[in-house]
Design brief:
Helix content is 0%, strand content 49%. The strands form 2 sheets. The chain has a 7-stranded mixed β-sheet, with no helix packed on it. It has a two-stranded antiparallel ribbon with strand order 2-3. The protein is an all-beta fold and 134 residues long.
Length: 134
């Protein structure tokens, strides 16, 4: 997956990601991507037009695989250490981390009766390498 990362502001404790299409959203209030702390990144599993979203395959990302973030001429390499399903109200994946850390989140298991997703996919990865790409 290759997509730009855009900021998503928090309003009244919630992040509105409805406007995002083929982007990854960095949730304000979490660590800025590549900085120390837990950076929360989200993208749609299905876009508003019904086409697969940026994170449509996120639940298949395996332990030990890599996630790359490119920023200011550097490639930040994160290694996946967990890929779990969590409840929509489970904030444990947002906990602070002392080192650079990514949490990738998307929706899963759409319920047509309620019009909501029943769970989230949460992939967690830790920084393992930084290299210049110039």
């Amino acid at each position: 997956v290759k997509a730009p990362i855009v900021g998503v502001e928090s309003k009244n404790g919630d992040w509105d990601v409805t406007w995002m299409q083929d982007q990854v959203g960095w949730l304000h209030g979490s660590a800025y991507p590549t900085w120390k702390g837990n950076s929360l990144l989200t993208a749609h599993v299905v876009n508003a037009d019904g086409k697969p979203g940026v994170f449509s395959q996120l639940k298949y990302l395996g332990l030990g695989e890599y996630v790359f973030v490119y920023h200011s001429g550097y490639r930040y390499t994160y290694q996946v250490i967990a890929n779990d399903f969590v409840q929509p109200d489970d904030s444990s994946v947002m906990k602070h981390e002392a080192k650079p850390f990514l949490t990738l989140i998307t929706c899963d298991s759409y319920d047509e009766k309620t019009g909501t997703y029943l769970r989230r996919v949460a992939v967690q990865a830790e920084l393992v390498d930084v290299r210049s790409v110039r």
